Amino acid sequence: MAARKPDYQGGKAYGERMEMLAQKLTSINEEFLNDTGYSEVEDLEEKLGQYKDKFMEFDLDQNLEIDIMGMKQMMEKLGKAKTHLEIQKMIKEVDTTGSGTINYREFVLMMLGGKSTILKLILFFENLGHSGEVKTGIPPKRSLDSLP
Q1: Cβ contact 72:79 at 8 Å
Q2: Quick one: which of 76, 86, 120, 127 has the most CB atoms within 10 Å?
Q3: CATH code (residue 103)
Q4: Is 104 part of any domain?
Q5: Distance (Å, rounded) from C-alpha 50 to C-alpha 96?
């Protein structure tokens, strides 16, 4: 599967495209907020905002889908590097359209749904592991014995 080249330019055009994509995701979020099936979800609006930000970060070619490379980058950033076969399995577990990618609606359904997918568990525990503090300063010295 070859990666598609984005059809946008940098600068103002890029900013306008990103704003358009954010508006599309916000309209999908509105559908979930207006759906009575999700009215009991705590902090739904806040969660949807987080999901939108996370999704946009890994939608590498800005086509409103996370493909295998976006998923690979997500897993690496979370410190959970996976093989291509593992990533394909994760995508297939979430992909309801058979496209081989995860669109935003599928992503939100996965995160809000009762089904515990591998990706959902990784993202959930990644959020738990992050405290509000960011370590700054000089890192402590390490020896060969301290390496994993």
Answers
A1: no
A2: 120
A3: 1.10.238.10
A4: yes
A5: 22
